[in-house]
Amino acid sequence: MSKIIISLFLTGLLFGSGPCIATCGPFLITYIAGTGKGAARGIMLYVLFSLARIAVYVLLSLAIFFLSRIAVENLIGGMYQYVLILGGGFIIIIGLFMALGRRLEFGFWKPLYRVLFEHDKKSIFAVGLIVGLLPCAPLLSILSYIGLVSRTWQSSFLYSLSFGIGTFLSPLILLALVAGLIPRFLSDKKAVYCQVFTFICGLIIIFLGIQLIMRAF
């Protein structure tokens, strides 16, 4: 068992240094940089995002253990389009609020603005869940392997957790730290620089949300 745990942890490290940066990096880094709440806050948001993904990995591996890969793939396939559309819409809303800032903080939009930015821990956790529910083919293969080699649900839990911890130890941690520092650096120059940077970050996030929706069709 220990050999499998170590090998899955190392596999997670490879994923965290490759595919995870490509799939999660653009949104996560742009979001942290756009909200501009410092390096410590950036690391905390990264941790919450990663915990959400790891939770989904564990649940998917347990589902494969109990139901088989075919059943889980059919389940994911059935809701894949809806997750893409809803997730993309959610990300677009985040981008709009980031780009327009407090100009949307009124009426119907005010409570939503507070949820997404004053309580940004919830929104980043939600995005982590969305990303975790849209696993790539290599990731599904690893989770399927975990389901096959696991003799008990406890071992499946440990294997997927070790893999998830490996993905957590990604260069994204350093990128999240640097992204949190960028707005503070700009604010030391001129407030307008920080506003323009936040606006650009919002536009990038909107673009990423649109791309997610387009994948549904």
Question: Could you explain how this protein is built, in words?
Answer:
By secondary structure, the protein is mainly α. The protein has one domain (2-214). It has ten helices and no strands. It has helices spanning 2-17, 19-35, 39-67, 69-100, 109-118, 120-132, 137-149, 153-168, 172-187, 191-214.
The total count of helices amounts to 10
Radius of gyration: 18 Å
Number of strands: 0
Gross geometry: globular
* Overall tally of structural domains: 1
Give a brief rundown of this model:
The chain has one domain (2-214).
What does the secondary structure layout of this molecule look like, with pairings?
Elements: H1 2-17, H2 19-35, H3 39-67, H4 69-100, H5 109-118, H6 120-132, H7 137-149, H8 153-168, H9 172-187, H10 191-214
Helix pairs in contact: 1-8, 2-9, 2-10, 3-4, 3-6, 3-7, 3-8, 3-9, 4-10, 5-6, 9-10
Please give a handful of descriptors for the protein shown.
single chain, 217 residues, mainly alpha, globular
